[in-house]
Amino acid sequence: MFCPNCDSQVPNGAAFCEKCGVQFKASPVAKKRSSGGGGGSRGGAAPPSYLVLSILATMFCCLPTGIVAIINSTKVGGALARGDYNAAQEASSAAMKWCVISFVLALLYLLFSWIMIVMKAEAGGGAGV
Ligand SMILES: [Zn+2]
Fold first, then answer.
1. Which of 51, 56, 67, 109 could form a disulfide with 73 if both were Cys (CB 3.0 to 4.6 A apart)?
2. What's the gap in Å between 32 CA and the centre of ligand 1?
């Protein structure tokens, strides 16, 4: 990675720049601003993989759509490793989409079962248990 302050190369995961001493935040992906424009392969922030979100979606929401999300989030890393930035971004947004679908399905399911419980309770009336 590169120091956003002085543009010198610093080791990945470094907490601060060895050249100018500026402290990096937890996510080194700051505002995308290429002031130097010297050319090179450091253009753009890496798209997020949403892997944790996908796993959560699979465990707590909806298994089939969560698995699709996980597959897409694992594709992000592979595409980035190949240097295929467009594919990485595509897989990233696909993973995000399937996470959202999982959460929406889970919410619908909760809502539906809640409605069923309410309806059952009303239909049961006094003749129930
Ligand atoms: Zn620096």
1. 51
2. 16
Calculate how far, in angstroms, residue 1's C-alpha sits from the geometric centre of ligand 1. 11
Give the model's confidence band at 1: pLDDT under 50 very low, under 70 low, under 90 confident, else very high: confident
User: For residue 38, how far is its CA from the centre of ligand 1 (angstroms)?
Assistant: 17
Query: Does residue 56 share a domain with residue 14?
Result: no
* Statement: residue 35 has pLDDT above 60: no
Residues 55 and 22 in one domain: no
105: helix, coil or strand? helix
- The number of distinct structural domains making up the chain is 2
- Going by C-alpha positions, the residue among 47, 40, 121, 123 that lies closest to residue 80 is 47
Residues with CB under 5 A from ligand 1 (ion): 3, 5-6, 17, 19-20, 22
pTM: 0.55
Cα 39 to Cα 9, 19, 34, 116, distances in angstroms: 14, 21, 10, 61
pLDDT in tens, 110-129: 999 999 999 988 887 655 55
